[in-house]
Write a structure and sequence with these properties.
2 strands; 3% strand; mainly alpha; 274 residues
Length: 274
Amino acid sequence: MTTANYVPPKPQSLWRAPEISLRFWPVFLRNLLVWRKLAIPSLVGNIAEPLMWLVAFGYGMGALVGQVNVGGQQVPYILFLASGSICMSAMQAASFEALYSAFSRMHVQKTWDGIMNAPVSLDNVVLAEMLWAAFKSLFTVTAIMGVMLALGISHSPKLFVAWPILFGVGIAFSCIALIFNALAKGYDFFTYYFTLFLTPMMFLSGVFFPLEQLPTVVRVVADWLPLSNAVALVRPLFMDQWPADAARHLLVLAIYAVGAFWIALALTRKRFAK
């Protein structure tokens, strides 16, 4: 083919389907090996705040509130709060890892650039970061659940079912956080995500009080928030019940996870294409 007849290939769409292979696994293991060196301080830091929320509000406010009506059943406020706060912990742990830690590896330390010098695509790096953030959040909620069991808040055998659900919660929120990671120019940008997105969601998702207390219009919006659907799945398990309308709640979380991952991947491709 002569130079005159050469037709350059069309640039690939940023929104093309993810190109995933098993090459994400070494990247995941790399993050795990690094984390093992600081596992204890990291774990303590992740579980300290939610446990303070639990003790302060659960036992302090719980003494004033007493029982809370959940689906026609009266439950202790400490149980009500614990079942919501563990979902909140999964959200926060996954978000923090997919924002601050992933941004450090991507932008500050340039670890992603080094990894992609090997035959590992950007798509696999993003997938590994997402799964690692979700997996790390599972460590956090496992430690918190252990404390809750030790305190006798709940001994329901159905709590074993909560583990894969909480892992799914971690996946959903790590995917959402990676969108902001792709857009960020610096660490300060993440303040908007925590202040304008996560904090309002904490108070609108039934973590601290029943959704029935919200105005009708606000509750309609709250019903479709990812944290609301996570709480709706996990809270009945703490009460030794199966969640009602579980398929809808799982579908909402899946839509958030798939949609957010697709957007995050496209924005990350755009960032690295510059």
